[in-house]
Amino acid sequence: xxxxxxxxxxxxxxxxxxxxxxxxxxxxxxxxxxxxxxxxxxxxxxxxxxxxxxxxxxxxxxxxxxxxxxxxxxxxxxxxxxxxxxxxxxxxxxxxxxxxxxxxxxxxxxxxxxxxxxxxxxxxxxxxxxxxxxxxxxxxxxxxxxxxxxxxxxxxxxxxxxxxxxxxxxxxxxxxxxxxxxxxxxxxxxxxxxxxxxxxxxxxxxxxxxxxxxxxxxxxxxxxxxxxxxxxxxxxxxxxxxxxxxxxxxxxxxxxxxxxxxxxxxxxxxxxxxxxxxxxxxxxxxxxxxxxxxxxxxxxxx
Length: 302
Prior knowledge:
Blueprint: H1 3-6, H2 12-19, E1 26-29, H3 36-43, E2 50-54, H4 58-61, E3 70-73, H5 80-86, E4 92-98, H6 103-107, H7 133-139, H8 142-151, H9 158-171, H10 177-183, H11 193-209, H12 211-225, E5 226-236, H13 239-251, E6 270-272, H14 282-287, E7 295-301
Parallel strand pairs: 1-2, 1-4, 2-3, 4-5
Antiparallel strand pairs: 5-7, 6-7
Helix pairs in contact: 8-9, 8-11, 12-13
């Protein structure tokens, strides 16, 4: 498997520019995946520079560059600060995260991330984990399922979707992606089938992998890891993630609370570098359609 087919890095030049890389600096790529961003960061580092790349997926580990300046960390990025301390690193010059699910995950049918075709209803980012999306679909009660679809899929009439699933699993457990698609067919809008199923599968994936909580934890730890003038560069692909990132960069907390000191000065330790999110060019979207929903946000430690 080539790195190009594993994942096409989105907004590669924009990410590198946003990091403002110092040749002798220390950097973290929180989401190595196919290694596209990781390799480009290394291209901008000198002999004294250091890069630490995180990924919990064993498939990603096989893409780790063989470079003495690079360290691969087989871990979820929610543990970034502890993992860096174990390696004797207290502060870094920049942190990058590309929160998108890699092309590899969608294209590897057996992983169950895509609603196209038939595969086990898996969706695990960390294949060492035991719980799968099928466990959620078959064990959560109706109210819990409806809440997931509303919170993480931003779908309407989620109680109808939960009812469809409950009726189907009462006959037999829902074990494959095709069986889930069939189970929700009665409440799938014919004209918006693809969009509906994308949101449904997204909601299950986020719940299974604890993505929102992991993002919140990583952002809070990143702020503590960054040196003054260090850059935080985050690329998200749906409104749930982007809202958290935007709130954090503007206020220093994921809820978006603007906190002020006695003199009325904002206490956030971050300064937004780009007021508006950076989005892909039309040329990039044409070249890589999966980049079309990407939003890149950049902040600097004060």
